[in-house]
Amino acid sequence: MISWEEAVNFIEVQQLVKRYGDFTAVDGVSFEVAPGQVFALLGPNGAGKTSTIRVLMGILFPDGGEVRLLGKPPQQSREQVGYLPEARGLYRDARLLELLAYLGTLKGMRAAEARDRASQWLERLNLGDWAERKVHELSRGMQQKAQLVAALMHDPPVVVLDEPFQGLDPVNIQLAKRLVVDLRAAGKAVLLSSHQLVHVEALADEVALINRGRIVARGSLEALQRHYARGDLAVRLAGGATLPEGLPVQRVTSRNGVWTMLPQRGVSPQEVLRALVASGTPVERFEVVYPSLEEIFLRAVEETTGDTAPAKEVQP
After folding, report:
1. Is residue 124 part of a domain?
2. Would you say 91 and 99 are in contact if contact means Cβ atoms under 8 Å apart?
3. Residue 75 CB-half CA count within 13 A
4. Do 158 and 85 have their domain in common?
5. Is residue 27 part of a domain?
C-alpha cells in the first residue's frame, strides 16, 4: 500500500455531488491538489464552495462522487489536515495559549508539545504578548490570526483556508500571504478560498471557478488570462507623439497617456506593432492586455449563469 507521503495528490475530489433536499449545491465537481501547490477554489456566494469544503473536511457526507485526503476518506485524515473555517469561533472566555494548547491535543499532540508549538506560532504571528489574555480581549484581526495558529500548529500536510484574509489589516494580510508561500515551500497541499481575489492572484498556482455548483473554468492564472483575454493592446508613445492614421485596429481609447486598441479581426499584435514602427511612431511601451483574476471571475460567472455547458479546463 502506498503511504500518504508517496501520494501524487494530497487532495482528490472526483465528481462530487451534494444535495439539500431537491437543491443540488455541488454538481459533479472534480479537482486535485498536489503537495507544494496552492489551489484556489473561487465563486460567488451560494456557488457551492463551502459545501465542497465541508464535504472535504468530513463535516458533510457526499451524495455522490468521491473525496480523499492523503489517499483516505476525510474521516480518517482529520489529524493530518489544518482547517480554517469561514465561520470563526473560539472559546471567548479561555486564555489564548491555554486554548491553543488544548486544540493541539485534539490533533494528536502531547500536551507539552502542543503548548510549546502554540507559543512558537504566537510569537511568529506577533501574538506572543497576548498569550495569557482571554480570547474576547483580542481584536477581530488577532482572533483571525489565533485561528490560523489553531489550523497550522500541528504541522499538517494538508491545509484548507476558507477566507484567510477576512478581518486582517494590510500588514497582517501580507503576513498571511507570506505564510501561504511558506506552506507551499514546505510541501503542503493548500486549498484556498477567498473573495479577496487580488490576494489570491498573487498566490495561486491553479484556480477553479465554481458557479451554481459546477466548475466553469479551471487552469493556471496565466492560462486563464490567455483564454479570457479580449485581444486589447496597451501602447505608450514617446515624447507625446500621437497615433498615426490607418492602423489596422477597430477601436482606440486613450487614458493617462496610454492608448488601448483592439486589432481588426484576423490582425495579430505583431502586425499592429509593425504598422506603428513603419510609420515612424516612437513606441515606448507595447503589450497585450491580460485580464485580472477579478475580471476573469466576473466573465466566467456571467457566461455560465443559467448555462449547463461543461467546464472550460484551460491548458497551460
Report:
1. no
2. yes
3. 5
4. yes
5. yes
Measure CA of the first residue to CA of the last residue in the chain; give whole Å: 32
Domain check: are 153 and 282 in the same one?
no
Residue 90 phi/psi, 5° resolution? -120, 155
Domain end among 225, 250, 266: 225
pLDDT one digit per residue (tens) for the chain, 316 residues: 445 566 678 999 999 999 999 999 999 999 999 999 999 999 988 899 999 999 999 999 999 999 999 999 999 988 899 999 987 778 889 999 999 999 999 999 999 999 999 999 999 999 999 999 999 999 999 999 999 999 999 999 999 999 999 889 999 999 999 999 999 999 999 999 998 899 999 999 999 999 999 999 999 999 999 999 888 999 999 988 889 989 999 999 988 889 999 999 999 999 999 999 999 999 999 999 999 999 999 988 888 775 544 445 554 4
In a domain, 29, yes or no: yes
Domain span including residue 50: 4-90+146-225
Residue-level length of the chain? 316
Domain count, the chain: 2
**Spatial distance between the Cα atoms of 204 and 210, rounded to a whole number of angstroms:** 15
Nearest residue to 260 via CA among 286, 283, 234: 234
Clarify whether residues 195 and 284 are in a common domain: no
Q: Helix, strand or coil for residue 188?
A: coil
Taken in order 77, 83, 86, 90, is the CA torsion positive or negative?
A: positive
Q: Are residues 270 and 160 in the same domain?
A: no
